[in-house]
Design goal:
- By secondary structure, this protein is an alpha/beta fold.
- A hairpin with a 4-residue loop joins strand 6 and strand 7.
- Helix 6 runs parallel beside helix 10, helix 7 crosses helix 11 and helix 11 packs across helix 12.
- The longest helix has 23 residues.
- It is globular.
- The structure holds 5,6-dihydroxy-NADP (NZQ) and zinc ion.
- 5,6-dihydroxy-NADP (NZQ) binds next to helix 1, helix 4, strand 6, helix 6 and helix 10.
Length: about 400
C-alpha cells in the first residue's frame, strides 16, 4: 500500500523562543475578554502568570480565570469553564501550562459554543462544530496539544478517559518559550520525553510503503528526543535541550509524520485505561507499556520494521533483522528505565493489582482497531500482565 491521500493543515501561529510571550498582546485582535486557564500553580511560582496578566492588561483584554486544572483533566473542570464562558460572554480562551491545561481549555472553548453537556463532545468529536479561539503558552514539552486537534478528558467517577478531536480545536496561536520548561521536574521531563517518543512510534510503525518522508522525519525526531531527553533531565536549564525537545514534541503529533501513512494508535488506548483507573502520569504509563508492546508484536513480519528503527535511530549494525529488532527493543527499555529513571513495572507506579485489567483490555481493544498489529483483548491482557511485573 502506497502513501495515501491526505489533507495537512496546521493553522497555529507559533512564536518560538525566549520572551515571545510578548505576542499575547495580539489577543486584543480577537476579542475583549479571555478565560485564562491554568493548573495547580506552577505558573505563579515561575512568574509566567504575572507576565501574561501584565501583557493582557496593557493590551486592554479583560481576564477571567479557570484555575486548578488537574493533571489528567476532569470533565467537572471543563464544565465549570464552559459555564463561565457562557455566563460572562467570554470571547476566547488562553491556556498556560502543559497538555492537561491546554486540553481542558480546548473543550471549554468548544463547550462554550455547545448547547449541552461538554462530555458529549468528549465522547463524540463530530459534535464539535465550533469553538472560541484557543491560545496557549506551553510550559511542558510532551503532548503536542499546542499544535494539534486533540484533547483528552477524564471522568474519574466513571473511570473513563477519552480523546476527542476537531479541526477547530487547533490553537490559533501558541507561544513556545523553552525557558518556561526549565522548572519542569525530573519526573515530568522523563514522562514528557516518553510521551513525545510514543507519539512518534505510534505514527512510525506502519506497513504503508513509500512514505519515506514521514519515516525519515520520525527517525530525526526520535534521535533528537533520545539525545536531548537525558541532557534536560540532568541539566534542567540547558536551553538547546529544552528547545529541541519542545519543537520535536510539537512535530511528533501535528500531522507531519502521520499524514499519508498513519495506522490507528494502540499503546495510547492501553495507557488511557491505566490513567482512567489509576490516575497515573500519561508518559510514565507509555514508557512502561511501549517495550512490552514491542516485544509482544515482534514477529517475522514486523522484525524488518523494528530493525529499521534499530539501524536508523540507534545506529545498530548487522544483517539479521530479528537480532537487530530485539536489540532495538532492549535499547528502548534501557533508555526509559536506566537513562530517564522511569520505573519498569506498573506495580511501582500505583497499579495495585490486576482486578481491572479485563475491563481495561476490553475498552482498549476498541481504540486500537486498525493499528500496526491489531491487538485482541487477550493480547492487551497479556501486555498489562507483563508490564505489571513478570512472574508475580
Ligand atoms: O498544574 P501545574 O501546577 O501547572 O503543574 C503541572 C502538573 O502538575 C506541572 N508543570 C507543567 N509545566 C510546568 C510544571 N511544573 C513546573 N514547571 C513547569 N513549567 O507538570 C504536571 C503535569 O502537567 P500536565 O499538563 O498534566 O502534563 P502533560 O503536558 O504531560 O499533559 C498530560 C495530559 O495530556 C494528555 C494526557 O493524556 C494527559 O491527560 N494528552 C494530550 C494529547 C493531545 N492533546 O494531543 C495527546 C497525548 O497523547 C496525551 O494523551
Ligand atoms: Zn501521548
Amino acid at each position: 500500500m502506497s502513501m495515501y491521500n491526505f489533507c495537512f493543515h496546521v493553522p497555529t501561529r507559533i512564536y518560538f523562543g525566549k520572551d515571545e510571550i510578548s505576542h499575547l498582546s495580539e489577543l486584543a485582535q480577537y476579542g475583549k475578554s479571555v478565560l485564562l486557564v491554568y493548573g495547580g500553580g506552577s505558573i505563579k511560582r515561575n512568574g509566567i502568570y504575572q507576565k501574561a496578566v501584565d501583557i493582557l492588561g496593557q493590551a486592554g483584554v479583560a481576564i477571567h480565570e479557570l484555575a486548578g486544572v488537574e493533571p489528567n483533566p476532569r470533565i467537572q473542570t471543563v464544565r465549570k469553564g464552559a459555564d463561565l464562558c457562557k455566563a460572562e460572554g467570554i470571547d476566547m480562551v488562553l491556556a498556560i501550562g502543559g497538555g492537561s491545561t491546554i486540553d481542558c481549555a480546548k473543550v471549554v472553548a468548544a463547550g462554550a459554543k455547545y448547547d449541552g453537556d461538554p462530555w458529549d463532545l468528549v465522547l463524540d468529536g463530530s459534535k464539535i462544530k465550533e469553538a472560541l479561539p484557543i491560545f496557549s503558552v506551553l510550559t511542558l514539552s510532551a503532548t503536542g496539544s499546542e499544535m494539534d486537534q486533540f484533547a483528552v478528558i477524564s471522568d474519574m467517577t466513571k473511570n473513563e478517559k477519552w480523546g476527542t478531536a476537531a479541526d477547530c480545536l487547533k490553537p490559533t496561536m501558541s507561544v513556545l518559550d523553552p525557558t518556561y520548561t526549565f522548572s519542569v521536574s525530573k519526573k515530568q521531563t522523563a514522562a514528557g520525553t516518553a510521551d513525545m517518543m510514543s507519539h512518534t512510534f505510534e505514527n512510525y510503525f506502519s506497513f504503508t510503503e513509500g512514505a519515506d518522508v514521514q519515516k525519515r522525519f520520525a527517525e530525526g525526531l526520535l534521535k533528537t528526543m533520545i539525545k536531548y531527553g537525558p541532557i534536560a533531565l540532568n541539566k534542567p536549564d540547558d536551553y538547546d535541550a529544552r528547545a529541541n525537545l519542545m519543537w520535536a514534541a510539537s512535530h511528533a503529533i501535528n500531522g507531519l509524520v502521520a499524514a499519508g501513512s498513519q495506522p490507528a494508535w494502540c499503546v495510547h488506548p492501553m495507557e488511557h485505561e491505566l490513567s482512567a483507573f489509576y490516575d497515573i502520569t500519561h508518559g510514565i504509563g507509555l514508557a512502561i507499556l511501549t517495550p512490552v508492546w514491542m516485544e509482544h508484536v515482534l514477529s517475522a513480519e514486523t522484525a524488518p520494521y523494528f530493525a529499521e528503527y534499530g539501524r536508523n535511530v540507534w545506529g545498530l549494525e548487522g544483517d539479521i533483522d530479528m537480532e537487530i529488532a530485539r536489540t532495538a527493543i532492549a535499547k528502548t527499555r534501557s533508555f526509559f528505565v536506566e537513562t530517564m529513571g522511569i520505573p519498569q513495572y506498573l506495580c511501582e507506579v500505583g497499579v495495585t493489582g490486576d482486578e481491572h485489567f479485563e475491563k481495561m483490555a476490553e475498552k482498549a481493544e476498541v481504540g486500537s482497531r486498525g493499528s500496526f498489529v491489531p491487538l485482541t483483548k487477550e493480547d492487551i491482557l497479556a501486555i498489562y500482565k507483563d508490564a505489571y511485573r513478570p512472574g508475580e
